[in-house]
Amino acid sequence: SLQGKSAVVTGSTSGIGLGIARALAAAGAEVMLNGFGEAAEIEALRQEMEQTHGVRVLYHPADLSQPEQAVDLVKQAESAFGKVDILVNNAGIQHVDKVEDFPPERWDQVIAINLSAAFHTTRVAVPGMKARDFGRIINIASAHGKVASVNKAAYVAAKHGIVGLTKVVALETAEQHITVNAICPGWVRTPLVEAQIEARAKQSGRPYEEEAALLLGERQPSRRFVTPEQIGAFTVFLCGPDGDGITGADLSVDGGFTTH
Ligand code: NAD
């Protein structure tokens, strides 16, 4: 159980982040949600999670492309909960274009949200973790933190980068009860991936579900999507006492994506 622990999950109003936030709350942790969306929907989600799991659930609207907002997210969680034991850097965006067509402002945005935001939240969360001699930092990287695909220059660069950041912070905290790991998911069916399937279906003229099956078949040998619930359950394991020996690792949850 993660009772008595408090967590910040970036980008937790949707997809993988929401799966992780739910799993942490179900395990007894207090959770600070973050991400974009309709204010009323987010408030309904926050209340529903509090009632379902009997833990405090808060929300902070930080736009993680802005360093000072990333810092404020952690500071607000520290003042509301008294501490941040678990930091999950999950928020991320995608942009698909050939490198020569890649809009420079989109490159900057992907690097800011998918990589630099994790640096800013980490640098302010680590001192408290060191002082209390406990911490768990989980960076949601990607199979694209290990291998590449065409047309994803910024995303692949950011995800390889966050795997590097993970290893450095793991080294710097290794002698304390702090672990820092990257989870590297393969395809998970979330709005981020649905947009890519829709774009491909539009280009090919194939039905959506056929395109989804083709997408899986190209890279994910299991031919099944990984689920946000599976990533959530794995995160809970890493956060628990049995995760104490796992640090500095890039952990694939990818249906075999990175085997070939
Ligand atoms: P998603 O689009 O469903 O969720 C992204 C979340 O991040 C949302 O809550 C969104 O509001 C939030 N967000 C986006 N920009 C933000 C910003 N500037 N500030 C704060 N929050 C912001 O996507 P997802 O698929 O759940 O992706 C979550 C993470 O998992 C990303 O880092 C993504 O790269 C990674 N990932 C996804 C897959 C996949 O197949 N879906 C695979 C590997 C890795």
From TrEMBL:
GO terms for biological process: monocarboxylic acid metabolic process. PROSITE patterns: ADH_SHORT (PS00061). InterPro entries: 3-OHbutyrate_DH, NAD(P)-bd_dom_sf, Sc_DH/Rdtase_CS, SDR, SDR_fam. It comes from the Bacteria. Belongs to the short-chain dehydrogenases/reductases (SDR) family. Pfam families: adh_short_C2. This is 3-hydroxybutyrate dehydrogenase. GO terms for molecular function: 3-hydroxybutyrate dehydrogenase activity.
